[in-house]
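note to self: dont lose this again. the chain is below, predicted strucutre after it. 206 aa total, dont forget to put it in the shared folder this time
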Amino acid sequence: MSQPPPKPTPAYLWFDTEFTSLEPEHARLLQVSLLVTDIHLNRLTPVEDDVNLCITLEPEAKLSGWVKENLVDLLARCRSEEAVSVAEADRRLAALVDQAVGPTAASIADRPVLAGNAIHMDLMMARLFLPQFEKRLHYRLLDVSTLKILWNDRHPGQPFPKDAPTVMSEYLPAMIAPPIGAAHDAYYDIHASLAELNYYNTRLLA
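---
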């Protein structure tokens, strides 16, 4: 008996996190960001509903040297009144998924796909700290890093310039305006990942 054709993915969940350490036993969330599109990279929710939250930093949290050196501004925000609890971040992320695609599908194969660069690391953080969000996810991942590897191997010396705002603006769909910020800000990075996928769509997959 032939298998039924697979259903289109209901949504791409463009997700990124910043965290305190690459060691899972010490890692704590610092920032979460989420933007939801359809498979054609069109927004499913308005920009004002995007999630972009800094997380309250626990006094005893261990920070890697890289984080201390490169995420100074984010650490200050995580120690301010702007920061929210991990539980509140989990609630807000889950709510945005429900707003975009409706109640969680009974079958994990019918749920939206987590998307981004090196997205397995962000899935690890979701599994550790964001249970309501994580249970709304498909078992597959859309990892732009896979295409990055193929592109860089075939076109050495021509990487996608994610730190160049003009290039990112060129490859972001019209409905998605580039954010203010720079690399290693989670909200900037989900836009950069989305633009990078669109770049490969036109040059590698066409």
